[in-house]
Amino acid sequence: MADRFDMLLNVRNVIRMTIFFLVGAGSLALAGGAMVHSAQSPAQAPGAPAAASPQAGASAQVASPFGAQAQRSGLNIVVLDPAHGGTDPGARGTGGIRESEIVLDLATQVRRALELAGFQVVLTRQGNENPSFDDRSAIANAQRGAVFVTLHISSTGLPGTVRVYVNSDLAAVTEANGLIPWDRAQAPFLGLSKKFGDLVQAMLVQRFKGSPDTALTAGVRQLRTTAAPAIAVEISSIVVEDRAELDRMAPGVADAIARGAAAFKPSYVVANVPGTLP
Prior knowledge:
By secondary structure, the chain is α/β, with parallel strands linked by helices. It has one domain: Aminopeptidase (3-Layer(aba) Sandwich). The protein has 8 helices and 12 strands. The strands form 4 sheets. The chain has a 6-stranded mixed beta sheet with strand order 7-6-8-12-9-11, with helices on both faces. Strands 1-2 form a two-stranded antiparallel sheet. Strand 1 and strand 2 form a beta hairpin. The longest helix has 18 residues, at 99-116. 44% of the residues are buried. Residues 1-52, 66-72 and 271-278 have low confidence and may be disordered.
């Protein structure tokens, strides 16, 4: 158990280690380091781009991906977010099944599949705790060369199916200082998120018949403040009588996410032309 905790990301430590510094004309930005672990050995996350959490102030912003210099970053990291936790159990089934517990176990299997595919993995929580939406986004926004996957169990939908969601359209707003408002951080990445989501969904429908062929769109709060390609993966459903039915789905879901991420890797190029979305 101790080894497991050593390997996982301790969110509270990351938040404590987060430091703020000034960039440009007094704009507040966040530079955070997060421990990542790979199939080979633990490693420190690559240099983090500027970002900021609303905890820093009401006008929090994230750096625009459209810098004056051409920047191409390869995909190396998957930030994996087991939803809910702590005082928020998420969806609950009649048999006492809790979404927060299932997705934490699911995250362990997804992590292993991703590591076998050569990715480093950052987890937003390691146990029964509930980081805020903004803390989870801040962890993702502190990485370079990353995508974000949040894991959920639905209370609706056809049991035995899986859906991928990407955020609904957001108006892209870049302020004069070149930064993007925190609550619009996902806007420049919507195209990449849709491509990533479609690839993962295509893998899922092969294993779980009745699942959609392509990713769906919705106003997912967790995705809106994430400055990276970001998707939500939702399994149906918490209303099954036996949790084992959901546990049996975990290996297939994990494999589909890993294969989708690997297929997406060649497409991961952050646009560098001002005013152009990925």
